[in-house]
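Troubleshooting: if your tokenizer reports a length mismatch, compare your output against this known-good record of 686 residues.
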Amino acid sequence: MNGSETVGPAAARPRPEARARRRAAPPCRTPVLPRVACALAVAFTVVPAEALLAGFASRAAAQTAAPPTPASGAAGTDVGTSQGQTAAAGGAAATTPRRKVLLTFTVSGGTPELEAALREASALVPLEKDGAPDGDTIFRAALSERQRLIAALFAEGYYAGIVEMTAAGTTPADRDSRIAINDAFAKGDIKVVVTVTPGPLFHFGDLVVRDAPGGAPQMVNATDTGIVAGTVAKSSAVRAADAKLVESMQKRGYPLAAVVDRDVVADHATDTLDVTWTVEAGRQARFGRVVVRGAKDVDPAFVERMVPFEEGQPFEPGPLETYAKDLRGLGTFDGVRVVPGDAVEPDGTIPIIVEVTERKPRFVGAAASWSTTEGALLSAWWGHRNLFGAGETIRIEGSVSRLFLNSYDDLQYKAGFTFTKPAIYTFRDTLVVANYFVRETPDAYTRTGFDSDISVLRKYGEEREYSLGLSGTVSRVDDAFGNHDYALIGVPAVARYDFTDNRLNPTEGYRLLIGLEPSFGKIGDTSAMVSGSVTASAYYPLDDARRFVAAGQVIVGSILGPELRDVPANNRFYAGGGGTIRGYGFQYVSPRNGKGKIVGGRSLAVANLELRAQVTDTIGIVPFMDIGAAYRTEFPDFAYSPKIGAGIGLRYFTGIGPIRFDVAFPLQKVKDDGPVAFYLSLGQSF
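Known-good structure output:
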């Protein structure tokens, strides 16, 4: 090993012939997991088994794994250098400035995508940009480099690759490599050379699923692995096949099914990967008792009431996933794990183990948003996640809005609380009680009042949600038609559907929101009105990476019953502003009276279109166009010409969703409109 290290995959129990050079040996079949491998291509040393196993571990795990043990039969690397040597190296690092890493990283063959994957997996590539503070940093990166690159090759389907590497003229396999690198570091920048020869691309060959000796009759086969013979043999597909086989057996009622062995063989004569799985189904079972662990302040009986299955029902994994999601959705727990027990009981049932970690019960928060057309909004809240021990939540909050737009004696306020109690009837049902004092002061009206709502929310997974309730409102409204006092009772009904891939930043799917509310009370010359609205949005990815997404939304609404002047101003429809037509003032694209004052409408029609382009991992650009208006009639008659707003937005992607900054222009300006409007908030516009 004079000056370079050449490594290729091998396995745990090396045979004598495994050490022969490829050029002197006939083509061989290499057991990739867990058995012996022959030397690959022109490999001069044998990679330790842990490097091979890393190819079938997650890439994230490979990137954080400890440095591998030097290859058997090669010169060893003494990580535990003598104290004197360590002190010398440490002393040099402490007094030497940061050095550049002059990296030559070459991939001989393969595809641009493979080279990108190898660079991403490399521990040395980041040092090329940032430099190194000491020689030990370079040594550690070089020591783990081969394991990382082999894992990346396996992940892309290359099982005959060669990795050659030198750092400061030495390799990590050399006994004095660490000292040599530190000595070179003390003198100047470090030269590092990495050369990867991927070799041929492997495809899946024979795929076999067999039962463990003495196990149940075979109930799964190769089709259950999700792998198709002839496709590229990526290691991730082999790992995923284990889970798919177990899931397939569990769906047939076998909760303790397992893959007990997996034999993976790389055939270098045909460039194929043959895989044999050995499975054991265990006993078929039914759902049994629920055992709750980790609950302290939360009543375990409440956790048991949340179960989406009945005791004695045939076992299947789907309800366990639903159970875990529902418990997480409460917001009461930091962690939730729902798994079958260790053994099927004599009566044929299996206990379900629920392990929970409770969150701190109390929380506080604040939020802010701003636009040139609607001013700034500030809100704050305090809450409790487990008020009475059964997952009840209360959130007490207050907000002030239209800051910097209205005068300080004419701002909007809202204060009150929302209380929720889950599992009031079944695990799907949640009681929601909300009471708020409000003062609203948009351009169209001023309202002071009290709103109270009580409803029952029923959820079907994360996709469907229905609610039915009773609402009451008492308020005084001052608008273009004069002063009015209202006392109304309503029966709101709402249906929500969400079939998108991400709630905060959807890239595919659709959403639908349908609302209908009959209200009763003194409403002009009538005693009832019905308000309804539909909001539909869809998202379509334009590329496989989903960095370019077309998004569209349509909003329509209607109020039936009273004349426009008799409809409470806060119940009318308005268009204009960040939630409907950007570029126009809040409510500005709405019917007006003869004096030009906004009065609102009894119907609404709005459409929004965006092209969302994610140009980097954190930055997105969004050109958009909005069109629509509110109308006096019960249904849109388009007598009032729809208005168009257009502009461009910036998105900064964070872990809690994108931060949105939009610049919009009114293409058909109306009274009092400015030339441009700005919007800043959290989350996509729809």
